[in-house]
Recover the amino acids of this structure.
């Protein structure tokens, strides 16, 4: 693991690209509706049942990481939360992803949550998969 001397974030690779911002989790939640804040906290609580992680606020999103970033929360809407999970292949045999896009070798699967019940067993399956892929990357 490498720790950036400027922002003290930890990374799997030395000099890994990132943004050294002073933005906090509170900055993203400031002014958001109770619905959105509750969704965010529920989402984190569900991920904590899968495993431990660190929260990495960046310029435009909050990422969750164990070894690498395995999930990003990129939009805190008025009454929703937008998240993407980087997975190793396309999982298009489900209705839980409203969009799937590839960026280099990473295949991002996009989810939108309006209610805590939207984080169901199927979504939890893909959340566990993203977390397991992170653990795999950490062993390489």
């Amino acid at each position: 693991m490498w720790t950036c001397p400027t922002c003290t974030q930890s990374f799997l690779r030395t000099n890994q690209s990132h943004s050294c911002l002073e933005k906090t989790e509170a900055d993203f939640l400031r002014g958001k509706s109770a619905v959105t804040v509750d969704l965010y906290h529920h989402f984190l609580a569900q991920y904590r049942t899968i495993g431990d992680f660190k929260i990495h606020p960046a310029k435009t999103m909050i990422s969750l990481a164990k070894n690498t970033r395995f999930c990003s929360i990129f939009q805190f809407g008025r009454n929703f939360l937008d998240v993407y999970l980087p997975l190793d292949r396309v999982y298009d045999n489900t209705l839980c992803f409203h969009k799937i896009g590839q960026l280099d070798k990473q295949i991002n699967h996009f989810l939108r949550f309006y209610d805590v019940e939207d984080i169901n067993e199927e979504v939890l399956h893909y959340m566990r998969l993203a977390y397991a892929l992170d653990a795999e990357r950490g062993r390489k």
